[in-house]
Amino acid sequence: MKESVVSAKKPIKTVIGPIHPALKEPIKFIFEIDGEKVIKVDLAPGHNHRGLEWMATRRNAVQTLYVSERICGICSISHSIAYCRAIEQAADIEVPVRADYLRTIFAEMERIHSHLLWAGVAALELGFDTLFYKAWEVREDLMDLLEYLTGNRVNYGVLQIGGVRRDITPDQHARINKSLLNYTILFDELYDMFLEDTVLRMRCRDTGVLTPEDALKLCTVGPVIRASGIATDVRQDFPYCAYGDLDIKAITPEALAGEVHGDVFDRIIVRLLEVKQSIEIIQQSMKKMPIGPLTNFPKLMVLLNHIKQAEGEGIGRHEAPRGEVFHYIRLAANQESPLVWKVKASTYSNAMSWVKMLEGEQIADIPIIVASVDPCISCTDRVAMVDKGRTSIFTQDDLRRLSRKKTERIRQGLK
Amino acid sequence: MTEIFLKLIIGVVSMTALGIVGGFIIQGVDRKLAALMQARIGPLLRQPWWDFLKLMRKENVVPEHAVPWVYNAAPIMAFASVITIFLYLPFAGFNPLMEGYGDLILIMYLLAMPALAMVFGGFASGSPYATIGAQREMVTMIGYELPLGAIVISFAWKMAQSGLAHPFSLKTIAANPIWNLVGPFGIIGFILLLLAMIVVTPAELSKGPFDAPEAKSELAEGLLVEYSGRNLAMFYLALGAKMIAMLGLTVALFFPYTISQYFQVDTTVKIVIEVLFYIIKIFLVMFVSVTLMRVSMARFRITQIVEIYWKLGGTMTFLGLFLIMLDGKL
Chain B contacts of A134, Cβ < 8 Å? Predict the structure, then answer.
């Protein structure tokens, strides 16, 4: 873009990304900078599109379950819970109570390790390497626990449509309790390190503020909206799995400080307190978990056949560590693969809040503000516009037209 | 006249060797200690040497938008000015090589030279990251020069007040340890100055938490973002040597004590003891003012850096100076 008027104090145009040390995944930010101050922000996602939804329409439902785990390396349980629930709704499959509890336990374990990973990344962005190493060292224990329970450290492969694949046996409780106790102690340590540190407070207080009004207007989800003081949580508002039986209250920074700033520091508070909440949820679930079958479809062929016969649509929602994930599934009769699979991850909802948070802030705060949303670009990128090597900008009207076209195609496919 | 030239040539050669080798060792120790404090295994002690060798083998890229002669001259200027400091610094109880030709004020200016060279290099790189980094480096310099200047003035004032000749000369300061000259108020004053010096050191060496000009996660190494190959290797050498120079200055100002007079041994053994004692002092100062500082704090914003140096550093040094003056009057 050429500027016709050359002023003496022209803001510098700086591009951060798609590849930059501040970003863990490819996304492009275009900043207009005056000195150290950010004047204008624009973002361009779409560097990490892998066509997963397209892949799903060429695989059967169980195969797609494993694709859904691989949408993102950190929310692998979250995406598969949302996916399973969507299929279960569409095909009218009932999940045994014990399986629901097990799903809850795995989901909460994932929340703990995701939040610890985030805490490490946040410390790294602030240039506090020691805290980064500490947070990631602490996280290892939970990864080991998940490996012990599911067999895998990252993509657990533990969920199945209609239930779960592995049980938690009574002799495994000792190992789980040991880890949970360990985390209860470590929590206090982390609490001191993050919330009592003067320098961290200096950097994060009143940085990247998102007002409750903006948070609502931009439809942000997860810890971002809760840190702005709005107590929404899918687990609390629309209970699913075993969450209805458990005491769950959305955590806002008021719980600790008595006031809401909606800044980066509040997002740290919310995530740290959620770690504690998750420990409690796991403890509650382990106590309340009833004995029963793990799935109503022990034979895979029966399950696949049932899904093949089914027709209809379903949605699955889950409060992932980063916020709500939403899966939409449309099944057609006598077709093994889903007709449509639509994934909306939490970062998609949170991305536009970056603009509000970053404008008027300093360059030094860009990395931590970007990280404070806990962005997951591979979750978010569901589309890339490439036209023979040219990329073009689509307006809202263009997108609406395209989506109507697609809906029409799906409708024809249903007939 | 020829004597001076001979001295200069020998001095430059030996000091360059000392700066390079010492810089590698001190960087290696710093990295290893930081790693141990962060519960990591960390690199080997000779890692900085390997890094240097690798950089020397890499291609030396000059960006399209750079001003080549400034861009290429900056690393050499940085390294040369650090080596020049060595000629005026007393090491291990020996008098400075160019004794009588320069004093504390000169060292203060020479210490600013590598930073200035990096600023020139940054601006000449023609990259927005480097430009922002260079601006930040200048602002940081404005910040820490105030407490540093106040420290130098306090020393010279005390020396002059004690009736010593050449108050700015490092030889005078090294010969008369400051703690012996002052009373209780003065000791408190100089402790404040020592604390200020410890806070100034990381910024002087572009280390955390005052590494905003380089800021890995913000500016992708800022000033040095475009540098590669030989030029970057030269900057590494300069930064390593500058670490020795800065820590050497702290030791020379605050801990000029020697211990060899307590041993009844040969002169050669005395020199060895003195050198070992000096190395221990350097490492101790490094541990407190570089390693401990950078592992225990998050990076400050550039505005916070200036605030810290002017408000906290300024208050500390001027209070120190006031206490020293009060002590002198009593």
Answer: 38-39
